[in-house]
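Me: I'm a chemist; would you kindly supply a protein sequence with its structure tokens?

Assistant:
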Amino acid sequence: MSAVYDCSKRESRVDGLTAAAAAVRSGRLVVLPTDTVYGIGADAFDAGAVRALLAAKNRGPDMPVGVLVGSWSTVDGLVLGVPPQARALIEAFWPGDLSVVLPHAPSLNWDLGSTRGTVMLRMPLHPVALELLREVGPMAVSSANVSGRPPASNVDEAREQLGESVAVYLDGGPSGDPVPSTIVDLTGDEPVLLREGAVPAAAVSEVLGVPVAPKA
């Protein structure tokens, strides 16, 4: 049976983070608050858990899952290299609402879906999410909703959609405006804007010093 923990109360938050970390380590799913919308997450290196995440969302591997990290330095171990453009965006917007797509390190034993050798990375600006990520390491995280339905902006909406497929729900209160992260693809010669979300394209262009064009 799923457990829900109110993270606005210190004792419940400690118990919830302990339970969530145990769930992630045992291959189960958790719902966690982020600075955008609520996310459903699993151990990024547990292929079975990632498949369960996709099944809970009624989504196929053709829509791969991004990875949340708890620190800047974690990125260095996940990708082939961090180019200057990526480093500039990380320093400007992390933790925050910007995701970057980079070629992942080929030695990593993970299966996030049909990523074509890339990974989408973000460090969220939310204390509960960061504490869990720093405890368990990188997590595969997607919006906490069934595919085709609105993303959950509170824990009740997440529970209504995902139910018992999730072991632990961390209630961090309302997420605010349900605006997704901005996604910038840095796998090619020029940066490409895959999605404009909470961070305006103009802000990305200003940091990079070049116009960032949307995907054709």
